[in-house]
Every structure is written in C-alpha cells, then in structure tokens.
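Sanity check. The docking grid for hexanoyl-coenzyme A depends on where the pocket ends up, so I'm generating a full predicted complex first rather than guessing from homology. Inputs follow.
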Amino acid sequence: MEFNKPMFKNNELKNKVIVVTGGGSGLGKSMTRYFLQLGAKVAITSRDIEKLDKTASELKTETGGDILTVRCDVRNYTEVEEMLNSTISEFGKVDVLLNNAAGNFISPTERLSSNAFDTVIDIVLKGSKNCTLAFGKHWIDKKQDQTVVLNIITTYAWTGSGYVVPSAMAKAGVLAMTRSLADEWAKYGIRMNAIAPGPFPTKGAWDRLLPGDLKERFDFSKKVPLRRVGEHQELANLAAFLISDFSAYINGEVITIDGGEWLQGAGQFNMLQQLPKEMWDMLEMMIRKNKKGHQ
Ligand code: HXC
Ligand code: NAP
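Predicted complex below; grid placement will be based on this.
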C-alpha cells in the first residue's frame, strides 16, 4: 500500500501562493513541506518567529522551495492584515489560505476559567474568522478569483466532545463558516472546504490531549476501525488535492480522514467488535432459539 507516499508528483501547485497559519509545527509543517515540493510558494505564520524561521530553513534545504515566515497572532485582526500585506509584498499575490492554527487542551469544563475558555475560542474561531475575512475582502476587492480557503477542523465539530468543549464549539463554528461562505462567496470565485482529521500524532496535540501516561491508557489507534493513527503525508495529499485545480468543483465540503474513528463511536452496536469470533456461534444459537420460543 502506498498511502503514505506523495500523491501528486509534477509541480501541481506551481504558481500558487499559499498561507499556512500555524505552519511552523505539526500538521501545518507537513502540509507546507508537500506544497513546497509541488512548486508552491508558501508563507508560514504563527506567534513564534524563531520556530517559524527554524522550520523554514529546514524545509528550504529539504525542498529548495520558496518559503516566507511572518509572525502573526491570528487573534489580532490588525496583525492578520499585516501578515496578508507582507505575503503580497514578497510573493506579489496570495491564492490560498489554510486555516490550520489552533489551541486546545483537555480539562473538565467546570475547571476552566472564563479566560481559558476564551483563549481556545479566540485562536480557533476568531482566528479563522480574522484570516478568512481579511483574505476574502482582499480577493473580492482585487477581483481575484480561483482562490481557496481550506479549514482544518475536527470530527467533534459535529459530534461534540466532553473535555475539549471550547475547541468543539469553536471548530463547529468554523464548519458553519465553511458551509456558509462556500455559498455566499462562490460568486467571487472563492472556494471553501474543510478537512476533519482523526488522530495524527503531533507534539502540539499529543502533549496537550494525551499528557503523561494517557498515551498508553487511551491508545488512539485502538479507537480507529483501521487500527492505526494517520500519517502526515496522507493528510498532506488530501490538502494538496483540495487546494489544487483538480478539486475545482468541490465547494462547501468537509472531508473526514480518520480511519472511520467517529463512526465507530456513533454506531450503537459497534462495541460488538470486541467479541471474540468463537462467541458468535453461541450467540447465534441463543438468538435463533429465542425466536422459536416466540412462535
Ligand atoms: C486549564 C488552562 C490550561 C489547562 C492554560 N489554561 N492551560 N486552564 N487547564 N491545561 C488557562 C490559563 O490558566 C489562562 O487562564 C488561559 O488558559 C490562557 O493561558 P495562556 O497560557 O496565557 O494562553 P496562551 O499562551 O495564549 O496559550 C494558549 C493555549 C496553549 C491554548 C493555552 O495550549 C497553546 O498555545 N496552544 C497552541 C498549540 C495547541 O494547542 N495545539 C494543539 C492543537 S490540537 P487564566 O484564567 O489563568 O488567565 C487540536 C486537536 C484536536 O486542536 C483533535 C485531536 C484528536
Ligand atoms: P500544533 O503543532 O500545536 O499546531 C498548532 C499551530 O497553531 C502551532 O504551530 C501554533 O504555533 C499555532 N498557533 C496557536 N495559537 C496561535 C495563534 N494565536 N496565532 C497563530 N498561530 C497560532 O498541532 P497540530 O496537531 O499540528 O494541529 C494542527 C491543526 O490540526 C489544528 O487545527 C488542529 O485542531 C487540527 N487537528 C489535529 C489533530 C491531530 O490529531 N493532530 C486532529 C484533529 C485536528 P505557535 O505556538 O508558534 O503560535
């Protein structure tokens, strides 16, 4: 199986300028690497310029691609506008916004201060809105079409989840934004889609969501019907497709890439997966016998 190999090979993203928020680490870094390999020019942004510069120098050496770093806290609209202007000054234009930056940690909701709650909502919901609004206004003003916004959400945007409630609320809002603007801004040639990843190991997410021995106690791979976590290249392949011209007719969609994780939690009888094979003969016999008793 070649699921962890690059899907496109031939400069499919050449001439595209892409902004990846939170591009200095984790999934943002992996997607950026692949976009550079496919010939795109990429600006990565986050709060930590040293981290961004280190990532940029690593990826430039690895891919030979054109990469720019811009410090920007997505919670601040003025900083977002400045980040957009810096990208345009360097690359002449921008075609794609990838809203990937996020903040999250696990906690019983009643333990959260109001500020803790707001911090996650501000990064995820307000941050994605800030970037989308600034970029959308720019594209509409300049009459630049064939532009794309891709939002990274989660599957609990629609199922909800305890212990990550601010994140679930914020990602649900980003999903609503995706579907709303896919319709409203299509007339300006702006496409808007989302990806809902299941578990993809990254330091940022794992340290905050599975600290200490939780990694061993709640092994994510056991929750996934395909019995493995995701590989970064798989996500990068999907993201590259969704920002490329090959997905020109996909608009307002959320694509789940989770090995079936959320559906396993949803199906009422999916827990029967745990039963050993031998038990099924006995169970079938018992059920059939019961049926006869009712005739
Ligand atoms: C309770 C906490 C807390 C915790 C912080 N706070 N951590 N409360 N439990 N573990 C509180 C603080 O006390 C403070 O409230 C408020 O939150 C803000 O904290 P700061 O540290 O000042 O905020 P900031 O420096 O802006 O950091 C934001 C952060 C941090 C979200 C708290 O974790 C961060 O920078 N995260 C960025 C990267 C990240 O989270 N990546 C994972 C994305 S994973 P008070 O009241 O004291 O002022 C993801 C995966 C989803 O989304 C699905 C996976 C399967
Ligand atoms: P990560 O490495 O921690 O990525 C989060 C990024 O967001 C960091 O680079 C961080 O950079 C940036 N960021 C945080 N606050 C910011 C702010 N205020 N302004 C600008 N940038 C900010 O974690 P990840 O796992 O790769 O997550 C990437 C995306 O995937 C997120 O949207 C996450 O919700 C989503 N996701 C991940 C998983 C998973 O299993 N890993 C599953 C579902 C969804 P700085 O700290 O330098 O600012």
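Relevant for the grid: The chain has a mean pLDDT of 95.
Also worth noting: The chain has one domain: 17-293.
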